[in-house]
Design brief:
This protein has 460 residues and is mainly β. It contains two helices and 26 strands. Strand 23 and strand 24 form a beta hairpin.
Length: 460
């Protein structure tokens, strides 16, 4: 259910515009008509007023901003996103409405706006001259107060650092999440540049707030530098058992990372593990890059290096090259294998492998891509047997028209799939009209979908 305060917000925006600046209105309206023949016995026709988006941009003395009015299939007009910034000397005040804009700029990006979600509220940015700069958010998240401070201290003796503080109430008064952090980067010497971050997290109630750091902290640290043409980077991430990750990227995990490069050669190693009483080793990912060649080896382990799991380990070799010959402009070839078996007589027992070839072409203003794969050509969830994949697409622009078509055929031992898609788009001064047949999502739709349709889009 959408917030009933939307009309009030809209009125405030209009009043603000009258007093502070001029309006530049733009947006888009999209209408789709579709005739679906997928059901052999009963074809269906439907129309979908997919969306109507109005983007208002405001420009004036000390003011910039935009908001988006959206009308979807529910036939309700609502503000899907809004942001206004009032610029003063060394100070910016930003207002948010249903906007994903809360994040930090520390080493680990420990506060991720996708995890925080859409918010309503205020952000204050202050340039404090010789005292650094500050971002402070006071916003509403899911009906409760969310505060975030990210203060970047002034650089001193080649040391750059920042502090962050977060407090997010889980309900009206008693429970809250709290997070405190500090990051640093010492750039005094080119050869050795230490850096790191310490973050503490809590899930508290007001009456029994405790600041014990036992099992609710994160440590990140490393060193990087340049020694002539050689560059290196080494770091480690340790996350205690009770550290709260609800605001952080999904990629945040315990690991040891080492990277080195010399001219056109680069080697990276990422050891994924679980620090604890007994360190548990999960996977070692190694990438070697030499010009256009990439070698990837990923060893799977079950606790220690001696517990090597062959069936879960991976290896691939990929080579890509740009070309300047007629017809073919570039190509890529790769071989991938997971696990290894001595006995291939039982076809259902082999572990996935793939031989992959891809090329891009450009001939007589026709452009496209061709692919061939043997082994496991698509995801194991969609296609579970040995097979081959053939794919090709072609496109060309003709003044006010553009045309595109693509086909895909998968030949398996048991399964066979064919699909195709085509579209013609006519461009008008303020939009386009697209006629299409089939479904173009080949990653998820392996069989041809019997449908035709037209999508009209107008921009203003």
């Amino acid at each position: 259910m959408r917030n009933k305060k939307t009309p009030l917000i809209f009125l405030m925006i209009v009043i603000t515009t009258v007093f502070f600046g001029s309006v530049n209105l733009n947006g888009s309206v999209e209408l789709n008509l579709n005739y679906d023949l997928s059901d052999e016995e009963e074809a269906s026709f439907y129309d979908s007023f997919n969306k109507a988006d109005l983007y208002f941009k405001f420009f004036g003395e000390g003011l910039r901003g935009e908001f988006n009015l959206n009308k979807d299939s529910s036939d309700q007009l609502w503000v899907s996103s809004s942001e206004f910034t009032y610029e003063l000397e060394n100070l910016d005040l930003t207002t948010y409405w249903n906007r994903k804009s809360v994040s930090t700029d520390d080493w680990l990006k420990i506060i991720n706006n996708e995890k925080v979600g859409s918010v309503n509220g205020l952000k204050l940015y202050a340039d404090l001259d010789n005292f650094g700069n500050m971002n402070f958010y006071a916003v509403d998240k899911s009906g409760y107060l969310f505060n975030l401070l990210n203060y970047r201290l002034p650089e001193l003796g080649g040391v750059n650092s920042s502090v962050l503080y977060l407090k997010d109430y889980k309900n009206e008064s008693s429970d809250y999440y709290e997070m405190m952090g500090f990051d640093f980067n010492v750039g005094t010497f080119e050869g050795v540049k230490p850096y790191g971050e310490v973050v503490l997290s809590y899930q508290q109630d007001v009456e029994n707030a405790s600041y014990s750091i036992e099992d609710n902290y994160l440590l990140f640290g490393g060193v990087r530098g340049e020694l002539g043409q050689f560059e290196y980077n080494f770091n480690t991430t340790y996350i205690s058992d009770d550290f709260y990750r609800g605001y952080s990227p999904d990629s945040l995990m315990e690991n040891i990372y080492l990277e080195g490069s010399y001219n056109d050669i680069r080697l990276t190693n990422k050891l994924e593990l679980d620090f604890g009483t007994e360190t548990y080793i999960d996977r070692l990912r190694t990438n070697l890059y030499i010009d256009n060649l990439e070698l990837y080896v990923s060893g799977d382990f079950d606790g220690t290096f001696s517990d090597f799991v062959m069936d879960g380990s991976e290896m691939s070799i990929t080579y890509s090259q740009d070309l300047s010959i007629p017809f073919l402009t570039s190509y890529k070839a790769s071989i991938y294998k997971r696990g290894w078996e001595d006995d291939w007589s039982e076809i259902t027992s082999y572990k996935p492998f793939r031989l992959y070839l891809e090329g891009n072409y450009d001939l007589f203003d026709f452009k496209g891509n061709i692919k061939y794969a043997f082994g496991n050509p698509v995801s194991e969830e969609s296609f579970q047997s040995l097979g081959e994949l053939y794919y090709a697409d072609i496109s060309r622009n003709f003044d006010q028209f553009s045309a595109m078509a693509k086909v895909q055929y998968i030949q398996g031992i048991i399964e066979k799939y064919f699909t195709a898609y085509g579209e013609i788009t006519y461009y008008v001064p303020k939009g386009n009209i697209k006629f299409y047949i089939g479904n173009g999502d080949f990653d998820n739709v392996l069989s041809f979908k019997k449908q035709i349709g037209v999508t009209t889009t107008f921009n203003f």
